[in-house]
Design goal:
By secondary structure, the protein is an alpha+beta fold. Helix content is 23%, strand content 38%. The longest helix is centred in the middle third of the chain and has 14 residues, at 71-84.
Length: 155
């Protein structure tokens, strides 16, 4: 059974849309926590309530909301992704090396965009959740994330 919050919605026009680009230097395959940068963006624009979105502009890196307390979870997730899309599995596309096609498959599985509600000036993440960029390639890269907010902000 579920419980629906029946708080009446206040219908008011959206008064703010803001966008920013975040460049993340990765160290190769792994998770990079970008929760702090997303929160800083919201603080900078004075976001109060609305929706934050993030979009990764790459086909071999992705975004996810995941466990932020125990790093073993992220290590196990990388192991799972490697099992689902291993290097050396007979991929035809290998233009940029043996990790190229597995990286594309891992991005397909994990996705390039997330949406997170914003309430009381904060991302409405669960206690153990963080926002992560996942680098699927073995070498270092510069990854660009487009962050946007639509909703209400202080003026």
């Amino acid at each position: 059974m579920f419980r629906l919050d029946r708080t009446p919605a206040r219908l008011s026009p959206v008064d703010t849309h803001a966008e920013s680009r975040l460049t993340v230097a990765t160290r190769g395959e792994g998770f990079t926590d970008i929760t702090r940068e997303a929160s800083a963006f919201l603080t900078e624009i004075g976001a109060r309530s609305g929706v934050f979105t993030a979009f990764c502009r790459h086909t071999s890196a992705s975004l996810t909301i995941q466990e932020n307390a125990d790093p073993d979870v992220r290590r196990d997730l990388l192991t799972a992704l490697d099992r689902l899309a291993p290097q050396g599995a007979g991929w035809v596309h290998d233009t940029e090396g043996p990790d190229d096609m597995p990286a594309h498959v891992r991005t397909l599985i994990t996705g390039v965009g997330v949406s997170i509600p914003v309430s009381d000036r904060r991302l409405v993440l669960g206690t153990w959740q963080g926002l992560y960029l996942i680098e699927h390639r073995t070498s270092q890269h510069q990854r660009e994330i487009v962050m946007s907010f639509i909703g209400h902000a202080t003026t």
